[in-house]
């Protein structure tokens, strides 16, 4: 039987979405879908030029005077999202799209001699951020809290905390996907579900203010409601009966008076 629980849902917190990655050497970088991605490709651009390639062709090159995007990428829609900042060697992609994911090659040259002074690879992975956490909780007939945590997004990872400390196997039975747990019915306190992936994290907490009892609160509430309704019907019926009785009483008395009135004889 499901129970109406004595609990308080607390506001959740979210972190992330602005993705910054040190891509000055071989690196795997994660970016949030729809958010800005900052890839630092080199630390010092002074005296250097740079070229940036995907697996098929060159995308842009940093020349002494400016950044030049090659033909296929020199379009308004692309340039609105991609920008290279020579002052700090950072590539900004905003907003990031699924098609931006891939393997890129960075080549750095000496500006004076044109000789290569470094080359490295950047693997860019774009993930959809995890959404706000949805917590569902019930009290089972065998006196256990059953709690399920769910969130949308790419590759969500779940973790649970009770009063700020990670839940242990002594506290709860966790499902294989870590989304559902069973808690001993006498557990109270602040229960938190945290969900994260590589680009952001979010959590929601609930205060368990009462123990989980095998007697369903729903059953008790319905039983009390039925008693109240039945009592109201009885009181209402009695009131209608009394009102109707009083309404007919004067007519009966009048009839009796007419019958008892003596007739005069002459």
Automatic annotation (TrEMBL):
**Signal sequence, renumbered to the chain:** 1-16
State the source organism's domain of life.
Eukaryota
Q: Which keywords are on file for this protein? A: Glycoprotein, Membrane, Signal, Transmembrane, Transmembrane helix
Q: What is the annotated localization of this protein?
A: Membrane
| Transmembrane in keyword set | yes
Ig-like domain sequence ranges: 129-205
**Classification via PROSITE patterns:** IG_LIKE
Q: Which regions span the lipid bilayer?
A: 218-241
- List, alphabetically, the InterPro entries matched: CD2/SLAM_rcpt, Ig-like_dom, Ig-like_dom_sf, Ig-like_fold
UniProt GO cellular component terms = membrane
Q: Which SUPFAM superfamilies does UniProt cross-reference here?
A: Immunoglobulin (SSF48726)
User: Mind telling me what this protein is named?
Assistant: Hepatocyte cell adhesion molecule-like isoform X1
Q: What is the species listed in this Swiss-Prot or TrEMBL entry?
A: Clupea harengus (Atlantic herring)
